[in-house]
Design brief:
Layout lengths: L1 H20 L6 H5 L7 H14 L7 H5 L4 H10 L10 E2 L6 E2 L15
Antiparallel strand pairs: 1-2
Helix pairs in contact: 1-3
């Protein structure tokens, strides 16, 4: 299927180039008709990418490559302590702006909390 996909993409790119440089358009225009001839290369390229993205079983490669490692997810969840409350609100000494407790740098003047 991938070979067919690469052939369709190549034919689509070749058709775009011929459409630009040939005075009468692409030879594919005569096959599909002049009304839809200008869309033919984009259809070929799209179908080609569709076939390239499929594996031999007919499934999307993205679905077969996606494997969830639950032990890694557990490790990532333990790194974030979501139960800890944010710190107390504070006032910047430089510009007197009130800053939320979960920030340690003033958004207005970039002064660190002291």
């Amino acid at each position: 299927m991938k070979v067919i996909g690469y052939l369709l993409v190549g034919l689509g790119i070749f058709d775009v180039i011929l459409y630009w440089i040939h005075p009468y358009g692409s030879p594919i225009d005569e096959i599909v008709g002049s009304e839809i001839g200008e869309y033919a290369p984009w259809v070929l390229i799209t179908l080609g990418y569709f076939f390239i993205s499929r594996n031999s079983d007919g499934e999307d490669q993205e679905n077969t490559l996606l494997e969830i490692d639950s032990s890694r997810e557990d490790q990532e969840n333990t790194l974030i302590d979501i139960d800890s409350p944010p710190g107390k609100d504070w006032v910047c000494e430089k510009c007197n702006e009130k800053i939320a407790g979960n920030f340690d740098t003033c958004w207005n003047c970039s002064t660190n909390e002291e």
